[in-house]
């Protein structure tokens, strides 16, 4: 009688399960029609054998423009969860996720899937389950579905019919599941190491050099470890991949992560606390794709670049180049056609150079280099080339030699005018762009968060703003009529214009000495400069009738040899540290803030005249230093003269890619206050007095 009652109970239980399953299937169908990501639960074997396990897959198919999330969704999303209704004797492991993609939306990092994907789990069947038993598996799944504008929490009942059997798997199902398994990250057989240094977190991943890695990205599965949208830098140190990024939170002990090796390939890694080796050879990375295009940010940045480029015409660093343009306009004598041609050529040269510099900057950053705006003056070789160029222009203005564009007939003059205007504009943009004047810092900082196709017009806007005054002279008759007529005065004016150009050459020589760190290191560059002057002197002598061409050839040969030796010497130039205060580093900042005192951090460079003006006129003033001493202000100086990846990262973290940048950390404040790019002594004294 007891056995019969047990049979009735079992039958009623199976009937109830069947009815529940039918209801859940109907509910799942209704939900699937209303969700933006369609779920479907499938099994590799619909007849799993008792005592064994089989794989199940939850396939997720997003609608066009929608995406789902990894187990750790990043800043805003969350992964999938399931409340299982499993029959007795059946257990389900947690889902394993395929390798996701990083996606930036409105400055927040998301770990997503924008295409159909499958989550895999294992179903274990108890050995005591009788063959033929109904093991229909169902559950309620919850997930988040998003576009780049809206997010919707979604829910559906998922179910798959299973019957205890022999565990057979069809060839088609095995192939399908093998494809899904291949998309899962492979577990790394050895643990990695991680450490936190101040505001930075560093990871070491053991990976032989033979393993191909393309556009890597590290996803942190453990919460409170990394600042998700912060840039990640990758390098190889022997058989270790070293990853550095900004820290966030206070995680301790072992943490979990996923290293993406390339499209659809990845490794799951467990990190133990431990020392991480120094960074090695840089590895290119694309970072997170940014689908956000904020039209307001774009136009604000474009406007700032235009106005900032216009203001650059008033900066001392541009004045020597503008003197060349003034001489050119004076030669035109107010002629409408010549002025328009030169104005357009000048604008084309300025815009083209700004675009080339911006494109190079974006390309270097995409390749994993930590560079920022004005990177062209962070290399001593570039400074030497500019020094040689300014000396050549100075000698030309003094009449030591002549360029073809200064004579040779009307046709040649017109041709030279357009070419001369273009190269003058190009030189002005090349020399002027390191001067990050008012409005330019924020405008160029916007290029860090805009897509590359939207960032390039910002750089072009800078070049256009720089050229606007000369375009106005070319196309506004009232301005053009105010130009003086050509006359004998031009010869004297030309020689006077050699003065600011010569001063620029002296400034570049000083910068080169600062970058190299010693006068001895200047030997080869000075020899190359002397040979360049000799070459131009002999060229001028031949133009005045000297027929000793062998002197010109010898000078050219000596210049080429000395320039090659100088270029090799500059590759080993040492770094300089400028300013009043201790040297900036993430560790130094962390220690300074731990003292509980106010901290003033300023990022500068020897080639940045705005920086030097602020230092002389405000930071280094006696009243300011006394106020800082009284308030116990800790000052840290970040010298970007020769480039520094740590400083470049710090600038990027605050939305900038150029100097100057001034940060004020009040005691106990979570984030710094970004001070204006133009400082006054009163402003700094007031900041110190308020602490």
From TrEMBL:
<dbReference type="InterPro" id="IPR035671">
    <property type="entry name" value="DsbD_gamma"/>
</dbReference>
<feature type="signal peptide">
    <location>
        <begin position="1"/>
        <end position="32"/>
    </location>
</feature>
<feature type="transmembrane region" description="Helical">
    <location>
        <begin position="519"/>
        <end position="537"/>
    </location>
</feature>
<keyword id="KW-0201">Cytochrome c-type biogenesis</keyword>
<dbReference type="Pfam" id="PF13899">
    <property type="entry name" value="Thioredoxin_7"/>
</dbReference>
<dbReference type="InterPro" id="IPR003834">
    <property type="entry name" value="Cyt_c_assmbl_TM_dom"/>
</dbReference>
<feature type="transmembrane region" description="Helical">
    <location>
        <begin position="422"/>
        <end position="446"/>
    </location>
</feature>
<keyword id="KW-0732">Signal</keyword>
<keyword id="KW-1003">Cell membrane</keyword>
<feature type="transmembrane region" description="Helical">
    <location>
        <begin position="452"/>
        <end position="476"/>
    </location>
</feature>
<dbReference type="InterPro" id="IPR028250">
    <property type="entry name" value="DsbDN"/>
</dbReference>
<keyword id="KW-1133">Transmembrane helix</keyword>
<feature type="transmembrane region" description="Helical">
    <location>
        <begin position="343"/>
        <end position="361"/>
    </location>
</feature>
<dbReference type="Pfam" id="PF11412">
    <property type="entry name" value="DsbD_N"/>
</dbReference>
<feature type="transmembrane region" description="Helical">
    <location>
        <begin position="549"/>
        <end position="568"/>
    </location>
</feature>
<feature type="domain" description="Thioredoxin">
    <location>
        <begin position="561"/>
        <end position="691"/>
    </location>
</feature>
<dbReference type="InterPro" id="IPR036249">
    <property type="entry name" value="Thioredoxin-like_sf"/>
</dbReference>
<keyword id="KW-0472">Membrane</keyword>
<dbReference type="Pfam" id="PF02683">
    <property type="entry name" value="DsbD_TM"/>
</dbReference>
<dbReference type="InterPro" id="IPR013766">
    <property type="entry name" value="Thioredoxin_domain"/>
</dbReference>
<feature type="transmembrane region" description="Helical">
    <location>
        <begin position="298"/>
        <end position="322"/>
    </location>
</feature>
<keyword id="KW-0812">Transmembrane</keyword>
<feature type="transmembrane region" description="Helical">
    <location>
        <begin position="496"/>
        <end position="513"/>
    </location>
</feature>
<protein>
    <submittedName>
        <fullName>Thioredoxin family protein</fullName>
    </submittedName>
</protein>
<feature type="transmembrane region" description="Helical">
    <location>
        <begin position="381"/>
        <end position="401"/>
    </location>
</feature>
